[in-house]
Design a protein that fits this description.
By secondary structure, this protein is an alpha/beta fold. The chain folds into two domains: 206 residues, P-loop containing nucleotide triphosphate hydrolases (Rossmann fold); 166 residues, Rossmann fold. The protein has 18 helices and 14 strands. The strands form two sheets. Strands 3-4-2-5-6-1-7 form a seven-stranded parallel β-sheet, sandwiched between helices. Bound molecules: adenosine monophosphate (AMP). The site of adenosine monophosphate has 17 residues, from α3.
Length: 432
């Protein structure tokens, strides 16, 4: 089967130019399957997780359709509404709208709670074509008369199952009751529990059902290794690893918030710029940490599983599991951060004797054994003495024969040039 290009999906030149600028060489499976239907005007029931390219799958057709019939953005009355469960996700979607729509003259706003509402109101008063919102703040602003939904032609409910988990379903129902009946609707969800299926039935008309499962692909594309060590050795292992400059945008996972703080403190003391994100941090602090990590100012993000949901940052060089998750699915989720949308990545796990059962569960779930890094003389390819690191974001220096460094390079190169190429063969060659 030949792979369709973005142009063959029916997207206009301005969008194609924007995708080109992002180095998106080919559509991901959900994009390939959803975009043609959405351009034709069908409703969509998409079963897809983050990392599949689902955001572009719904944002591109909306941008195209809005730009085909250009109208002025009406004060307070947006034409498209994208609902997201969290502020982080709303911001990410807003960034997608901005990036993909860079050559179009469409206005958008992102609104969410926990911050002052004045700038958001001002944007709405000026008028936007696309509104990305979390449910609570949206209802607030609707209640105050700053937003009306009677002009909505495109409605997206993203991460519907998470909306349910977070207790927003009631709000979603209130919001959908305010939408015009004549509209195009899209519902995306990683899973399809019965409540979501019911919600989809009430929101969508004859939807195209498109399901993509990135799990197997993601896991297969990631170079995974495990270090067997004692709990007390993990910190030293971490500093030794960070002496390697190719580890320049790394997410370290811990099981608890407390441990996340401790690891972040320790790394900062070791002059490795680190931020921790977890549920005890305020939304503002989490957002600042993510931004600084995204920009490359912070080298390491220490995260717990819950805080990491929805982190969408390109070019994460490595994921390190400082502690293995006790839920095997969490492992797949964690390592997926280093292999977004078809790119490969590297994931290292530290496994102390008490964590062996977790490792067994993980290997059972992913149906393969994770390569034992200790068998290849571990400390041979990582300098024993950590040296202060001069980090160079986006441009790791060539140095030595460190295997993990080369893997990091491959990941980035591959993402930029040939996202589809298998890197497993290459890394196997190196490990030999
Ligand atoms: P999403 O599943 O929408 O959260 O997207 C995950 C990541 O994939 C984002 O960082 C996007 O920038 C990236 N992405 C989306 N579509 C493509 C594509 N066709 N090629 C390369 N990267 C993509």
């Amino acid at each position: 089967m030949t792979e369709l290009t973005f142009a063959e999906l029916g997207l206009g030149q301005q969008l194609l130019d924007a995708l080109d600028a992002e180095n998106y060489t080919a559509p991901t499976p959900i994009q390939r399957r959803a975009i043609p239907f959405l351009l034709k005007g069908s409703d969509l029931l998409g079963i897809a997780q983050t990392g599949t390219g689902k955001t572009a799958a719904f944002v591109l057709p909306i941008l195209q359709k809005l730009s085909e019939k250009p109208t002025k953005a009406n004060p307070r009355r947006p034409q498209s509404l994208i609902l997201a469960p969290t502020r982080e996700l709303a911001i990410q979607i807003g960034e997608g709208v901005k990036t993909y729509g860079r050559n179009l003259h469409l206005r958008h706003a992102v609104i969410f709670g926990g911050v002052g509402q004045s700038p958001q109101i001002q944007k709405m008063v000026r008028g936007v074509h696309i509104l990305v919102a979390t449910p609570g703040r949206l209802l607030d602003l609707i209640g105050q008369g700053h937003i009306e939904l009677d002009n909505i032609s495109f409605f997206v409910l993203d991460e519907a199952d998470r909306m349910l988990d977070m207790g927003f379903i009631h709000d979603v129902r209130k919001i959908s009751a305010l939408l015009p009946r004549k509209r195009q609707s899209m519902l995306l969800s990683a899973t399809m529990p019965r409540d979501i299926a019911k919600l989809a039935e009430s929101l969508l008309k004859n939807p195209e059902r498109i399901e993509v499962s990135p799990k197997v692909v993601t896991v297969d594309r990631i170079d995974q290794r495990v270090y067997f060590c004692e709990s007390g050795e993990k910190r030293d292992l971490l500093t030794e690893i960070f002496a390697d400059e190719s580890f320049y945008r790394v997410i370290v996972f811990t099981r608890t918030k407390h441990r996340a703080n401790r690891v972040a403190e320790f790394l900062n003391k070791s002059k490795i710029s680190t931020e921790a994100i977890h549920g005890n941090k305020s939304q503002g602090a989490r957002q600042r940490a993510l931004e600084s990590f995204r920009k490359g100012d912070t080298r390491v993000l220490v995260a717990t599983d819950i805080a990491a949901r929805g982190i969408d940052i390109d070019d994460v060089t490595h994921v390190i599991n400082f502690e293995l998750p006790n839920e095997p699915e969490g492992y797949v989720h964690r390592i997926g951060r280093t292999a977004r949308a078809g790119a490969g990545g590297v994931a290292l796990s530290f496994c102390s004797p008490d964590e062996r059962p977790f490792l067994r569960d993980i290997e059972r779930l992913i149906k393969r054994e994770i390569a034992n890094e200790n068998e290849r003389p571990l400390l041979d390819h990582i300098p024993k003495k950590p040296k202060p690191v001069q980090r160079q974001p986006h441009k790791p220096e060539q140095s030595g024969r460190r295997i993990a460094k080369k893997q990091g390079d491959n990941q980035i190169q591959e993402k930029r040039s040939k996202p589809g190429r298998s890197r497993r063969r290459r890394s196997r060659g190196k490990a030999a």
